[in-house]
């Protein structure tokens, strides 16, 4: 099975409700879909969101990176030579992790199709059902409380509460949600870099002193402020998770060496795809550090790949934030992974199992 062509499409899926974080507000998922074609007639699918505020990637940069740097290296390559291909993708250029991820996902999809096996089985196998949290966007307190209660009623047992806008209101947001859900769901906070280290310690100690038990706090301070991450980690009981602070394996090694966080959030769009996600999971496991697997605003194409990784690496990926498809108004994918509110299941279809993507706008070469 040899690679013959790489094509692009644009996928637009409106969100059920605006997605609001300390960094941005989004109403519609607008992602680049990558289709890798082979001489055997098989197609592998990948997807990349333009999360410029986190990865630096835009729609234009994703297409240009693949078209001019990655694609020329891959045409003619044998899918069976997986490690060689992932090495070609990762070394094609610096950064551009979302572009690399989209192509790697499509290659792994084809690798599964080549051996007629679902990806998670080729990655080591595992329990085919996982459970995700759901994001509660940062908003007025009453709206966040209503969204949280509604999520609990839909069966979500873990809520990812976005904070990081205003420290005083953030504390009130969390207190109000904690009281409203009455122990029916775990609360994870994500400040998306919105606090200073001192503010984070103040907010978390205030909540801890009020008897509020949080599952974790994600990325309290600026991405590059590893000293700040460590400052918070050393001073609060709530486990601290690094998200924007760590992209690839080298950053994870440094974070662990500095003891700057307790947990690592792996995202395919930060790692540049599946190969580095697996490396990070293995490094973390060796150091006894737990991981979450998360997503950006992605549909069930690239999130399917993250699900297969999560299933196969459940020894170390103990927390799941793969709610992208649940936030979308509809699922554009026929086949693939099954997303049913908090419950996500892989099937035994080869690769990612994607048969068709509806509503894809073709981007001409
Ligand atoms: C969608 C997911 N639950 C999430 O919150 N992901 C990111 C933010 C993604 C974005 O801004 O597109 C995170 O910070 O964890
Ligand atoms: Mg985050």
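Sequence proposed for the structure above (365 residues):
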């Amino acid at each position: 099975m040899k690679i013959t062509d790489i094509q692009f499409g644009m996928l637009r899926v409106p969100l059920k409700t605006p997605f609001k974080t300390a960094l941005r507000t989004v109403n519609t998922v607008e992602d680049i879909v990558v289709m890798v074609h082979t001489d055997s007639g098989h197609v592998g699918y990948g997807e990349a969101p333009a999360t410029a505020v986190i990865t630096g990637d835009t729609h234009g940069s994703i297409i240009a990176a693949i078209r001019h740097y990655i694609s020329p290296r891959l045409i003619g390559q044998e899918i069976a030579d997986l490690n060689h291909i992932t090495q070609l993708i990762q070394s094609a250029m610096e950064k551009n992790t979302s572009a690399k991820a989209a192509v790697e996902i499509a290659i792994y999809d084809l690798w599964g199709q080549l051996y007629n096996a679902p990806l998670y089985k080729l990655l080591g196998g595992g329990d085919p059902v996982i459970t995700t949290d759901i994001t509660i966007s940062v908003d007025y307190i009453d709206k966040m409380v209503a969204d949280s209660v509604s999520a609990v009623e839909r069966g979500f047992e873990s809520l990812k509460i976005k904070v990081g806008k205003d420290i005083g209101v953030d504390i009130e947001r969390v207190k109000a949600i904690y009281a409203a859900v009455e122990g029916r769901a775990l609360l994870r906070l994500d400040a998306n870099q919105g606090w200073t280290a001192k503010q984070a310690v103040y907010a978390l100690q205030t909540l801890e002193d009020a008897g509020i038990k949080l599952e974790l706090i994600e990325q309290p301070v600026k991405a590059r402020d590893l000293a700040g991450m460590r400052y918070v980690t050393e001073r609060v009981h709530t486990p601290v998770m690094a998200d924007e602070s760590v992209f690839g394996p080298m950053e994870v090694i440094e974070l662990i060496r500095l003891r700057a966080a307790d947990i690592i959030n792996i995202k395919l769009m930060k790692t540049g795809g599946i190969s580095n996600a697996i490396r990070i999971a293995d490094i973390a496991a060796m150091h006894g550090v737990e991981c979450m697997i998360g997503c950006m605003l992605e549909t069930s194409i690239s999130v399917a790949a993250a699900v297969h990784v999560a299933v196969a690496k459940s020894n170390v990926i103990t927390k799941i934030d793969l709610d992208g498809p649940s936030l979308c108004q509809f699922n554009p994918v026929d086949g693939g992974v099954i997303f049913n509110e908090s419950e996500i299941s892989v099937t035994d279809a080869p690769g990612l199992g994607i048969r068709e993507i509806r509503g894809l706008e073709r981007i001409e070469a």
